[in-house]
Design brief:
It is elongated, with a radius of gyration of 23 Å. An 8-stranded antiparallel beta barrel has the order 1-2-3-4-5-6-7-10. The termini are far apart. The protein has about 210 residues and is mainly β. Helix content is about 15%, strand content about 50%. About 25% of the residues are buried.
Length: about 210
Amino acid sequence: MTRKLIAGVAVLTLWAGSALAQERKEANADMRGLTVQLGGGVEGYTNALASDINPGVAYGATLILKPTKVLGLEVGYSGAANNFDRDSVAASGTTSGPDIIRNGGQAVATVGLTAAPLQPYVLAGLGFSHYNVRGSAPGFQDDNVGNLPVGAGLRLYAGNFTADARINYNVLFDQEFAGRVPAADVSLPVGETFSKGGSYTGTLNFGATW
């Protein structure tokens, strides 16, 4: 009986120590406030665009306001550089660097699935980009494109340091930068339509919180 009591006290002590350590970790993590992040990764395309445009480099900068440990509001710059798949796109002219350069911005809301320093989350928002098609490629031209980003990620808070890994899919509005894409098949009440060709972005981001 005494051994069982001692074992029970030991287990309870270990559990209490672990809980206390977790509380200290959460107390030291800066999960509220203003965060600035820089990051990079990969951006590619889906459906009809996937066969024409190769995955390329993505990069960006984000300003994040977190009024609570769970809710986040973001505004940021995002860009990408991609090349045509020369087996399917008859691009002509000589250009140094990528065939397509995208520059844009987006406003996103994030909702954490926990309030812990290692926090999975989901996101959704609205974005806008300018596509610069360099050189000459049949069916492609410069254009401005709206998009709806949706996705998920995992964010780590350690003191003032923040690390973030995320992936999101961008539902593109009907656009003209890729005339080779089939006609959109989803109509909206405001007269806009969604393109069958979308994009995806996966990034690693690092920053600090104040």
